[in-house]
Amino acid sequence: MKKTALFAALLLMPLPALAQAAPDSLFTAGADIPAVIAKAKAEQKSTTINSTQPVATYGPYRVLLEYRTGLTPPTVHHGEAELVHVLKGNATFVSGGKLIGGAPNRPGSTTDAGTGIEGARPRKLAAGDIFLVPPDTAHQFQDVTGEFIIISVHMFMPAK
């Protein structure tokens, strides 16, 4: 009886460690980016869904590789700015205005996805472009041709 109780206790000991969040990942080598792109491409479920892969994380800050091949829903990130660097492809970036039909894209998310943007400003994008999306700004990548690959840095912005 004592051995069974001890064995059961030992089995339960590692469970809290499994429930902990994944550790921060501060670095991805440039030589590894093609493999990250290949993984994002392989995991893309549809042309209307962008596929994201983590590149680096630290607490609420995330660096993501985003892979798109078509039009994805417009979004607003509440409480976080987004710095974007276009690695490959062309698209039109629309931002500003009002998100139409916005709702959280999953329970507890700080990102709303919508059906359109009213009053947005368009900008043509190409590889090498870098831009910032302020917090709470509706935005969308439109007119995506071929593969459109970006690095996005999501930066938590505390309320003023």
Report on this structure.
The chain has a single domain (30-156), classed as Sandwich (Jelly Rolls), CATH 2.60.120. 17% of the residues lie in helices and 46% in strands. The strands form three sheets. Strands 1, 2, 4, 9, 10 and 11 form a six-stranded antiparallel beta sheet that branches. It has a three-stranded antiparallel beta sheet with strand order 3-7-6, with no helix packed on it. A two-stranded antiparallel sheet has the order 5-8. It has helices at residues 2-12, 15-19, 33-43, and strands at 51-58, 61-68, 75-77, 80-95, 98-100, 103-104, 111-113, 116-118, 121-125, 130-133, 139-156. It is globular. The protein is built from three helices and eleven strands. The chain is α+β, with helices and mostly antiparallel strands. The longest helix has 11 residues, at 2-12.
Low-confidence spans:
1-20
Q: Provide the CATH superfamily.
A: Jelly Rolls
Oligomer type: single chain
Q: Please give the CATH class.
A: Mainly Beta
Number of domains: 1
Q: Any idea of the CATH topology? A: Jelly Rolls
Radius of gyration, in angstroms, nearest whole number: 20 Å
Order of helices and strands: HHHEEEEEEEEEEE
Query: For the terminal residues, how far apart are their CA atoms?
Result: 59 Å
**Strand count:** 11
Q: How is the main sheet built? A: 6 strands, antiparallel
H/I helix tally: 3
In CATH terms, what is the architecture?
Sandwich
Mean pLDDT: 86
Helix amount, in percent?
10-25%
Structural class: alpha+beta
> Which of globular, elongated, flat, extended, rod-shaped describes the shape?
globular
Strand content: over 45%
